[in-house]
Fold this sequence. Notes:
Layout: E1 10-14, E2 20-25, E3 35-37, H1 47-52, E4 58-64, E5 67-72, H2 78-94, H3 102-114, H4 128-147, E6 150-158, E7 161-168, H5 176-191, E8 198-201
Parallel strand pairs: 7-8
Antiparallel strand pairs: 1-2, 2-5, 3-4, 4-5, 6-7
Helix pairs in contact: 4-5
Amino acid sequence: MEIKRVPVSIYAEMTPNPKVMKFVSNKLLLQSDSAEFRNIDEAKPSPLATKLFHFPFVKEVFISGNYIALAKFDIVEWDDVAQEVRVFITEFLQDGGIAVDEEQLTPIQEEKAVQGSGPALNPEDLGEVEARIVDILEEYIKPAVAQDGGNIAFMAYKDKIVEVQLQGACSGCPSSTMTLKNGILSILQKMLPTLVDDVVAVNG
């Protein structure tokens, strides 16, 4: 019996960040949480990101689950290039191209953690409050942020202040401060009364 390949379909979606467009695939691109590439050198584990950096307007590539969030330089408008990028991604995946080689990804992520862009989080090292914060972020906040083409990672908790890292469309988004203060902070304060005074983004 011949196995039919499911055709790849990609659609483009605006995010709250005008510099970032989200391209959603009907197939999973990445098993692990997410991968962020800020330049072509960082993109070595991702054949797709490497190719995308050949577009002169692509500034950063963020891949998570079944979508790619692209940040652009101000030299073009999305209206002029989104269709071209959508077709390119569709054809790349349709031809069997790999979005991310996850085996190559791990050493880079471990390296980043060691270099101090954030603690490598071991659930066993977390205190009770930290573990609760991570659970709340995972269950209530990450899905909403992913809808907008972004991701959020817990970094630290000290003196009643939660530090998070914003990735993808959330990084540098004009409305991310509002999201932090109105959305994330209010959820954490509601679920952990008296334990959280503020949420700050530590973007390295």
